[in-house]
Amino acid sequence: LVIAGFALNTLFRTTAQDRFDRSLAEQADNLLSIAVVDPTGAVVVPPMSDPKTARGFSGRYWAIAGQDLVEIERSASLGDAAPLASPPGGLSALMATPGRAVFYDGGIGPVSRPLRVAAMLATLPGHQGPLVFMAAEDRSDLDRDQKRFAVTTAATLILLGVGLILAVLIQVKVGLRPLFALRREVAAVRQGAADRLVRTYPSELEALAQELNALVAHNQEVVERQRTHVGNLAHALKTPLSVMLTE
């Protein structure tokens, strides 16, 4: 159950993270597709279809940075907040996968909420040198869903474990009832309250009960034979002892 709990939580966390990252990658691709360079060489981003990027501190942000990872354009939703965090490894990490998004946790963003960032290195016609396109989103909902799933899974598996333990205890108590009865009968034979086992037992224990009865019968036979020998010995010694007593 513990292994199953870890496996389920890992699977859910990975699946939810992948889905979240795919959404971020689409945002970065959209940013790249609509960004243009005007005649002055400045990067211009027309209004995006996602209205959250235009609403202050909405939880969805984007930014464009140069080769030095200094922002040259940002979404209105960022307002005057600090720049988005650069990817671990800097520009070299992005150059290893040009045109593909690199995902990383962007620390604490606006309104003190954690961010997940997708950064992609690409070029724009008319602009000298590559640009870094970054899309970020508040990951609080993702973390909350993962935590809720972990708690729900743990509670469910704990209840299942308790149920299984109770079922095993009941099964052992019911299943071993004939064995307990056999123990009581053997104790009665040992104490002299019974001569042999008389109960009918399941097929798994019937052979054992028969062997125990055979053992008891054999012991009784040995005891009777010893009694006979003792009786004969006493009879043989009776006359000599009488003569000795007379003398």
Outline of the structure:
With 247 residues, the chain is of the alpha+beta class. The chain is 54% helix and 15% strand. It has five helices and seven strands, in the order αββββαβββααα.
Strand content bin: 15-25%
User: What is the helical fraction, as a range of percent?
Assistant: 40-55%
As residue ranges, the low-confidence spans are none
Q: Helix/strand-derived class?
A: alpha+beta
Distance between the termini: 89 Å
How would you spell out the order of helices and strands? HEEEEHEEEHHH
Largest sheet: 5 strands, antiparallel
Q: Total helix count?
A: 5
For the residues shown, what is the average pLDDT? 92
What is the spatial order of strands in the main beta sheet? 4-3-7-6-5
Number of DSSP strands? 7
Gyration radius over CA: 43 Å
Overall morphology: rod-shaped
